[in-house]
Design a protein that fits this description.
Blueprint lengths: L2 E9 L2 E8 L2 E5 L6 H10 L5 E3 L13 E3 L31 E4 L4 E6 L5 E8 L2 E5 L6 H10 L5 E3 L13 E2 L1 E3 L13 E3 L12 E4 L4 H18 L1
Parallel strand pairs: 3-5, 9-11
Antiparallel strand pairs: 1-2, 2-3, 2-6, 4-6, 7-8, 8-9, 8-14, 10-14, 12-13
């Protein structure tokens, strides 16, 4: 049985792709590595869908042999071993192209840049990396689940266009298709926008009803005086 793992990514669902082959752990040469390849790794590990497929030793260079290269998965395979690729062996290529994968796992959301913890730019944690979501198809049902997940009541509004400022890091290619009655973001169906590239110009935002207007006003007053003391 082939053993597969993700290393150095902060969780078992993110990191450098490593394969235990012929008694030794090795890596995948990622010169043509893409989201479809990463999707198969995530599926094989029971880590949900792929949200990113970094190459160029994004998670650091591995050690040992390169086990395979020129991987061309369709994205539907059950295991990496089922994908088209160069013959599995122990190659001595450089580890500077080691492939990685960041899987959805159990995504943890937060709201950043708002007046309180219940409003702000939507950011989602995968592995040890926070990224944003595009507002293109982020709707009221998705926002309701984020608010519920954060124990912030129901949604008030979903301003788009990086309303709370542009995020940093990746823009995850996740299309959440929540029904609105889920209690955790990871309970929602999700698909991938792998054919698109997004910028932080369209970072999704949410304003939840969890904080009362009095709390928001008090938070604004405290923030104002805090900034005045700094300057």
């Amino acid at each position: 049985m082939v053993k597969l793992r993700l290393a150095n990514g902060g969780s078992r669902c993110a990191g450098r792709v490593e394969i235990h082959y012929r008694g030794q752990w090795g890596t995948v040469y990622g010169s043509y590595w893409d989201l479809q390849d990463a999707a198969v790794v995530c599926r094989e590990l029971g880590c949900g869908t792929a949200v990113s497929a970094p190459s160029l030793a994004h998670f650091g260079e591995g050690s040992g042999p390169i086990v395979t290269l020129s991987v061309k998965c369709s994205g539907t395979e059950a295991a990496l071993r089922d994908c088209e690729s160069a013959q599995w062996d122990h190659y001595s290529y450089s580890h500077s192209y080691d492939a990685g994968a960041i899987c959805s796992g159990k995504p943890e959301p937060r709201l950043v840049g708002g007046m309180n913890r219940c409003s702000g730019r939507v950011e989602v944690l995968h592995g040890d990396q926070w990224g944003t979501l595009c507002d293109l198809y982020f709707d009221v049902e998705d926002a309701n689940v984020v608010c519920e997940h954060l124990q912030c009541g129901t949604v008030n509004s979903i301003p788009g266009g990086a309303h709370f400022g542009k995020g940093t890091g990746p823009v995850w290619k996740e299309n959440y298709r929540c029904l609105g009655n889920e209690t955790r973001l990871w309970d929602c169906p999700v698909s991938s926008w792998e054919q698109f590239s997004f910028s932080h110009e369209n970072d999704a935002s949410v304003i939840c009803a969890g904080e009362s207007s009095q709390s928001i006003l008090l938070s604004s007053i405290i923030d104002y005086f805090h900034k005045s003391l700094i300057h």
